[in-house]
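G., the chain you wanted modeled:
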Amino acid sequence: MHSTPTIHRVPAVLAILASCRVLMLFLLPLCSACAQAQPVLVEEVVRSTPDGRVRGFLATVDLTDPTVEIVVTAAGTGGNEADLLRTDSWRTSVGAKLAINANYFGTLPGNHADIIGLSVSNGTIISPIRQFGSNPDPAITFTQSRVANIGYIDSTTGVWDALAGVGPSTTDTDPGTMLVTDGVNTGATARIDPNGRNPRTAVGINQAGTRLYMVVIDGRQSGWSAGMTLPELADLLIRKGCYRAINLDGGGSSSFVHLTDAGPVQTNRPSDGTFRAVANHLGIKINPAGTVTDRTRRPIRGAWIRPPSTIASFESSVAAVASAGIQDIFIETLYWGRDTGRNNLPNFPHRFSFDYLSQAIVIAAKYGCRVHAWCETGYLDFGTSPSALLAANPGFVVKHRDPANTITGDIASQRFVNLGNPGVRTNLNQYFAALAANYPALEGIQADYHFFPLAASGAAVWSFDNWARTAYQQLYGVDPITEVSLNGTSFPTRWRDWNRANITESLVQLRESVEAVSTSPLLHCVAFADYNSATHTSKMIDLPGWGTTTAAETYIPMSYFTSLTTVPGSNPPRNQAIDTDVQRAQTALPNKRVVVGLANLTNQSRASVTVQLDTIKGRGIEEFVFFNLDTFVANPSMRTELTTWFATRATQLQGDVTATGTSNGFDGVVDARDRAWFNTVFTGTPVTRIATIDRCDLNRDGIVDARDLALLNRAFGRYHFGEDGVVDTRDIQALVGCFTPGPAPNPAILNLWDLNGDGAVNYADQVILHGYLTVPVPFDYDVNRDGVIDLEDLMAQNRFPIDINRDGVIDAADTTALGARLRASELDSMRGSQR
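Predicted structure as tokens:
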């Protein structure tokens, strides 16, 4: 008999680590699902496969959010289990934000259906557990408090909602398995047609049962989506942090319907051409407890910097801007084909004699800042001698024709590459993957110059490298040199669209290269919002193409205008040129995360920092990157503008409940000080909100209680561990890499990894991180760090215990785990001697 699997529970509080000689400033209630940006986060899935492009949608649902409600289709009419209903119609009827199709079913007369396997809605069993012998179907269940479980369910005790995956049948002796089993890909033995490419629907959960993944993949549509195999689907879910998953009804039934925050409904493309009526559905409703005005997503507040020659200078600059509220450092990492880090790729030699990027990450964390790698992708050289990559591959350099019909290989000593060229892509993909693999603390990786350049005097530069000429001629039967006009920026739509598609595809591949390593680093792309203007058309920027696919996770339109004209009637004043540019980018990138690139340069007259920030806020955006950081350092008045704007105009961050550790306040971060202050307000008994504790009522329902605590935990995790909802070994590596004895260089700013607020980053902070893990990591048996697991470790554990099982608390379970490991080793040794 299959038993219901035990779900890992994160302890309510950390044990006091006195035996570790660490003084905890507060006890931190933990929630392993607190890195989610909002209750429902939807992202497009775009993948390359040997059989073509695959597309779909994946939603991540934070089940700890008190506003979330699980909805499963109720019983049908006339005593039938189900009435057939399209997913889009069902979503509207129940008022769900998100809906997918669910169980397999058999069609009955009169528009009715028989649901295959378990289905429970609001505590009512709609369809019973299906079981052959001792093998029940794999299913997902939810308690009334929204704790999820996936397993071979043989009891409905305590189940409030449930859906079944595909298990045994009367006609198939293959019992089938879950799609993901305890973090292991078991898609090859799941049903149905595991190795075929089909439209797919699946659901999964993290190990704690506090995060739900809902995925729908399109298929059977040539030119749009080829479909996924079940092992590929399982791999996608595992990368997102899934611990267990089941396969639901796919094929023509696969349906994904999402009501976006902006209003439009976002759907997949069903293989039938329209949604099929199905027997039951899984939906997510959002029931706000009150009017929440704080932002939930951690904002990007950044500045670009070209690294100074010394780390000391870098630290001085970061210290200055961090005090003004800058929290994201975009450091130039791939520069003229040289690597600021130490990725050891021969075509991208080291820029410095040491690993500058690693040191920059540690320094930025000391001032509470995250680091993003700024990479110049299309522009890979400057000067008279080519970079290593272009010296080894001269054919990568873009050729162009100017009005004088002169073929050249660069423009004013700049060398650009054709991003469509497969050789260029291979090298850039390797570099981006190396960044993701070698720098686990990176917050993001940015592709810049991801387009073609302009020549002098406005003449267009067109890629006539040998690869482009050959590929275009094979596709269209014409040499582009004879087809493309040579007068300025005028050229055929076909040539423009072909180049735009190539640039977009190269960007998609960069993101896939990063995600093949980890979903944690954000992939940013910088471009010009005015992509169709006479100035920018020849750059082949495909902003609308980026808007219809997941080419990146954030898009940074550069709005570097010198015009001082304001939007008529705007109060506070907004800059007309920047406002128009941002509006244009938002139109081209619907439902995408737009982070505006702004300029604070002083060599030309520009709108003030305050006006620029007011302008983007007028378009609903408060995320930005300024060029450049050095200007802020050199101009204290600009830093004052930043500080004042954050304090008086910026939308505050949910969970940022104090700036001083006393009454209401905010400082733009969610850290240990917020947690400590909240703990003095809510000690386990609900408290009526009053003016002095206003910000502790996170859900704005008039009471400070456990629901606010859950939201604070989620905000704390999101701030420290990122937006992807995955907390894993990478985060442990990032924290350990920033270990420091303290004290902090600026007492007003906690280190990004100082999770307990004691002024240092050490093992006590690592234990707190363990409580947030969403992906299982190996137990830590080598207590005394001598490279051997033996009885010495048991003695060390008794003296100075560590969190061996990495569950966020040091207790007897750790010693038990070590004892079991030692006994297993002894048995293995005995067997070896007997042989």
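Residues 780 and 804 are 5 Å apart (CA to CA).

Shout if anything looks off.
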